[in-house]
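User: Sequence for Isopentenyl-diphosphate delta-isomerase below. Tokens please.
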Amino acid sequence: MDQVILVNENDEIIGSEEKIQAHKNNQLHRAFSVFIVDSEKQTVLLQKRQISKYHSGGLWSNSCCSHPDPNTNLIDTIIKRLREELGIRFLDKSWLETSVFITNHIKQVGTIRYQHDFRNLSENEIDYVFVLPVDSTNLEVIPNPAEVSEVEWIEFKVLVQTIEEHPKQFTAWFEKVFSCVEQSMFNTQSPNLLMD
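Assistant: Structure tokens for Isopentenyl-diphosphate delta-isomerase:
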């Protein structure tokens, strides 16, 4: 069973809980959101969540999102989820080399506090937002159909317009985490929205 890291409002660890139970109990826990970006082309890789996901199925979201494992290094968990959800690998690298590249190039660009109720569950999260810069022409993406129904590279300016015109096509947390990416890509100061 997947466990999540429970925290208080200051993001201090207070325990762990089974993932679905934490969402049923509205317990504050850690999450992470990753944006794979091609800075040269000004594009970002989005995923459309599989319709059967326990929440937000059929909606567009960031490249990958999940929860840190209480017993695993955060970057290692991110690498694992990128592989499980998107099957990513660089065409000129082995999987080990891909893992090393991710470790060396991924960067945290913000932290948000996010709460959203859906059905009988609640997302109550402190979400660490990461950017992974890549050359999209050298990246192979093979989405896991159990997790992702489709992926798409989209230009930043088109994405901003689409969010404004069709916000219901995106997950409830998307606009908030994407704002961290916009700040980091186009400004010098990255936001910390923890106490937002």
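The mean pLDDT is 91.
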